[in-house]
Amino acid sequence: MPKTVYAEKVTEVEHYTDGLFRLRVKRPPGLRFRSGEFVMIGLPGAPMRAHSIASPNWDDELDFVSVKVPGGPLSERLARTMPGDTLLVGRECKGTLVNDALEPGRRLFLFATGTGVAPFASLVRDPETYDKFDEVVLTQTCRTVAELEFAERAVAAALADPLLGEFLAGRLRLFTSTTREPHVHTGRITTLMRSGALFEALAIPPIDPACDRAMICGSMAMLRDTQAILESAGFVEGTDAMPGSFVVERTFADPSRIAVLA
Ligand code: A2P
Fold it and tell me: Which architecture, in CATH terms, is 99-249?
């Protein structure tokens, strides 16, 4: 009988808030993925759920960011995971947030809310992204400052990395905002795009489909509103088969889209 999932040891667990945490596990030797894709993960005796791989595809371990859902049959147990525990990892990786689905461009904008930042933490650490785009702007908006910590640390570590840092210096920028607590920037990303405050803060021209590209990952409402702004500016959604100027990941906002991947 073919093995349907990998069983790997958890190597690290980091908690950012009461409910938000990161798990790091050994990478199954046979697992292949493109940066930005997701895979099913689970625990023995609990259902498997799709999670973006937050680490780049050259890494020999896998990072996952997750949120504890009260009463959730997997997430409450995942949140209690300790190094040495076994994590089940599906064999098939999928997703729309891949470089292959975008035409090359000057600047790649990655718009995330909440844990939607996970696939982008993978892409911003993949040198292939910088072959295709001159600059990358990663935005994350959360309710609170504590929820921004994962992305802030991932970007800081990438920039400080002796090999990767040299490559990313001056080409990767992180813009964060909060909506329910004071922070350097406040407001929904859609509000900051419409007002132009995002582009002013970064001292760059407004996003332009002629030369810029975008990826979106967040709640269903955020996807809908950000997509509407991009489409009204002339952006066209891309796919693997027909690359375009933006892509959206709807799997997490609408779990009925998940085919069984385990
Ligand atoms: P807000 O606090 O104004 O609702 P959530 O934790 O509910 O997924 O939200 C994550 C972030 O996404 C919050 O900062 C939230 O702002 C923001 N958000 C919620 N809905 C939208 C939307 N339609 N467009 C843009 N941002 C949104």
Answer: 3-Layer(aba) Sandwich (3.40)
Taking the centre of ligand 1 as the mean of its atom positions, its distance from the CA of residue 26, in whole angstroms, is 33
pLDDT of 90-136, one tens digit each? Answer: 999 999 999 999 999 999 999 999 999 999 999 999 999 999 999 99
Closest ligand 1 atom to Cα of 224: 23
The fold adopted by the segment(s) 5-94 is Elongation Factor Tu (Ef-tu); domain 3 (2.40.30)
Ligand 1 close to Cβ of residue 192 (< 6 A): no
By DSSP bridging, strand 86-90 and strand 5-15 are antiparallel
Distance 189 CA to ligand 1 centre (A): 9
Cα distances (Å, whole numbers) of residue 130 to 7, 56, 106, 171, 252: 33, 13, 10, 8, 26
Among protein residues, the one whose CA lies closest to atom 19 of ligand 1:
222
